[in-house]
Amino acid sequence: MVKFIASILLLAVVAQQAYGDFKLPKARKVTEISKTSNDPTNSVMKELKKQNKNVILTHANAGQEEELKHKLICSLEVPEIPKAWLDMKDACISGMRHQIQEEINASYQYLAMGAYFARDTVNRPGFAEQFFKAAKEEREHGSKLVEYLSMRGQLTDNVSNLINVPTVAKQEWRDGASALEDALELEIKVTKSIRKLIATCESKPYNHYHLVDYLTGVYLEEQLHGQRDLAGKLTTLKKMMSTHGELGEFLFDKNL
Fold it and tell me: Is the dihedral of CA 241, 244, 245, 250 positive or negative?
């Protein structure tokens, strides 16, 4: 009886060990997975791998972009061409640059005059329109001279200092007559500058006949007509103001 009981106990122990060996790999696997998922070090490693992958991709994209830029950039050398057509002399070029600045200066002064008479406290719309129009014309004169220099191949360098921003000499006027007087003086100054430029460019050894003809036939012609127009308007305005005072200026402004 004792031997029988001992045999049964022995079989039970063997069976338990066998069952434990059979369950152990699965339990160990579950435990290892649980530990891996809860391990913060493992999450950090995953994030580092992800960032490293992004860095690699970024460097790769940057390399491709740089390579593409090199492919798109065309480095063309300036070809050697004859220079004989660049025949304008320094004195004439300097005079042209000076005249461009004179035209821009006049344009700014006319803008100041137009802005003054456009004020609500002055309210002379006729004078304002007259001076704003003159400002536009002077600006166009300067632009045409720039285009001429470009056509003659003389704007390949020193373009940055071609025009300096001027400061206006005057910003307020006593009345319309004083403004017209200043406008006439301004036109006389510009005309003298053009004549000086013509004298420089037509004399030896320059003989720039084409430029002289352009300045004489276009610029000087317009300047002389402009001076005559301002002189006539100033005469009429002074006559009206001498008999009617401010009412004369008001009526003159209405007809500008």
Answer: negative
Task: Provide the sign of the torsion angle of the four alpha carbons 200, 203, 205, 211, taken in this order.
Answer: positive
Alpha carbons 99 and 147: distance in angstroms, whole number: 13
Domains and CATH numbers, the chain: 90-254 (1.20.1260.10)
Provide the whole-model pTM: 0.68
154 marked among binding-site residues: no
Condensed to tens digits (0 to 9), the pLDDT of residues 15-36 reads: 555 555 444 444 444 444 444 4
Quickly list DSSP for 84-116.
Answer: TT----HHHHHHHHHHHHHHHHHHHHHHHHHHH
Q: Is 246 annotated as a binding residue?
A: no
Indicate the DSSP class of residue 172: -
Judging by beta carbons within 10 Å of its beta carbon (0-12, 13-18, 19+), is residue 115 exposed, middle or buried? middle
- Residue length of the chain: 256
Residue with tokens 């402004």: 253
DSSP annotation of 37 reads H
Q: Are 231 and 177 in contact, with CB atoms under 8 Å apart?
A: no
Q: Is 221 annotated as a binding residue?
A: no
Distance CA 106, CA 114 (A): 12
Q: Is 138 annotated as a binding residue?
A: yes
The set of residues, in sequence order, having a beta carbon less than 8 Å from that of 231 and lying 6+ positions away, is 184
- Per-residue pLDDT reduced to its tens digit, 192-231: 999 999 999 888 776 788 899 999 999 999 999 999 999 9
On whether the CB atoms of residues 162 and 146 are closer than 8 A, the answer is yes
Query: 67: annotated binding-site residue?
Result: no
What CA–CA distances, in Å, run from 239 to 37, 118, 181?
103, 24, 14
